[in-house]
Structure prediction request, 69 residues.
Amino acid sequence: MAESTTLRKGTRVTGEDRSKLATDLKARYNSGESIRSLASSTGRSYGFVHRILTETGVALRGRGGATRR
Prediction:
């Protein structure tokens, strides 16, 4: 997670930094963290984290909460 703390909010993430961040986010999401918590801990937007996870081929979980019948 050290790589994500060295990236300033709003800076463009490319190349090796993006790959490292993607790997870190993928592992954390697969271990149960939510996209919102990943976004807040990295200082990135929900959309950015969602896009990174989608690019890495992560199977996104469905939304939580009660379902209507």
Q: What stands out?
A: The CA atoms of residues 56 and 64 lie 22 Å apart.
